[in-house]
Amino acid sequence: MRFAWIDLREVPRPQLQAVVDAAIHARMAGVVAADAELLGTLPPTVTRVLVTEGGVPVTTSAKKPGDKEPKGAEKDAKSPSAAATSPSNTAFDVLLRKFHTQDELDALAADHRAGTRTGSAGGTPVSGFIDVRDDRTLQLSCAGAMVLPYTVIHFADPTKIPLEIVLAAAESAEGKLVTVVDGLEEAAIVFDVLERGSDGILFTPRSADEVFALARLLEATTPQLELSTLTVESIRHVGLGDRVCVDTCSHFEEDEGILVGSYSSGFVLCCSETHPLPYMPTRPFRVNAGALHSYTLGPDNRTNYLSEVGSGSALLAVGADGRTRRVVVGRAKLESRPLLEIRTHAEDGRLVSLTVQDDWHVRVLGPGGKVLNVTELQTGDELLGYLAADKRHVGLPIGEFCKEV
């Protein structure tokens, strides 16, 4: 499950308290700071990550500004594990230290193993932060990801190839990979690299608004839909009209398609061109979706007319079992073709209508993912569809009276 840590170290001081409050309210997974006193004010619902310089906390909850160091503290502070075993550990949950060499990584791993063995205060996870700038540091980051509970990586170059390499190298690792991002757009990209994406991100917000925007990004998932069985009651040729082929940037599975319907209250699951056809190659990225007036269902329970769908639009790919995923449209192709109207009804009597190209190679899906050619449909045949509970205004659900015929 992906997560985010909020980095407070470079947040403008006038915005600091608002960002802290937003991080708690938005239930961010963790907060990163160099001040243990600040972390000590946070509730236990937040993972408190203390960044240290040379293994020593910048401040601790046990030491106030102006206090003198106790005798022997200077000597203790030079020990790599001094911070990990300090009583001030109660102010934080994860200790984060930079590493640049294999020796420093080995020391971090040893401190973590020692803390795991001792338990209680000494059990605080000791984790690492590394700047990846070349092949040496890239290989070192891969090694860190295999032995540390958290490995935070800042990639100097904009390419995501180094991240792909670390993700592949750490596929079997138990620890978590946290990638530093410089904005919400990059965060979205990082979460999708190699489909798996980084386990977490480290983000420095400029305001509380950016924290809440990040929370919305983290919550952006597609729903499991409860599909219904629709029974065909009539099929008729309606003449020439404009239909839309939707070409996505994804490969559809054999039992996947998109939901399309003439009415906002009901949709039919239109099949992709994944299955072989005579006279033409398969196009597993395409759905011959329907007439341009039709609704199609996208993320966030938002509908669009097929006439509005174009390059960069987001739609839902829907499986015969109701699973969904977000797909991006590469292009939409509008052409004039003979059309066929398919009228169906649900078990509750609700009318669901679909107008598609009048051709044998256009297909819809039935129960169990059965592939059905639209020109061979007969009264009584069963299709898969989705019944929406909401009426629509400009694609958004709205609770008003609306009758579509």
Roughly how much helix do the residues carry, as a percent range? 10-25%
Distance between the termini: 44 Å
The average pLDDT score comes to 85
| Number of helical elements | 9
Radius of gyration: 28 Å
Number of strands: 23
Note the beta-strand portion.
Answer: 35-45%
Describe the largest sheet.
10 strands, antiparallel
Q: What would you call the shape?
A: elongated
- Low-pLDDT parts are 55-89, 117-122
Helix-strand category: alpha/beta
Describe this structure in words.
The chain is an alpha/beta fold and 405 residues long. Helix content is 21%, strand content 38%. The strands form 4 sheets. Strands 10, 11, 12, 13, 14, 15, 16, 17, 18 and 21 form a 10-stranded antiparallel sheet that branches. An 8-stranded parallel β-barrel has the order 1-2-3-5-6-7-8-9, surrounded by 5 helices. Helix 1 runs parallel beside helix 9 and helix 6 runs parallel beside helix 7. The longest helix has 17 residues, at 102-118. The chain is elongated, with a radius of gyration of 28 Å.
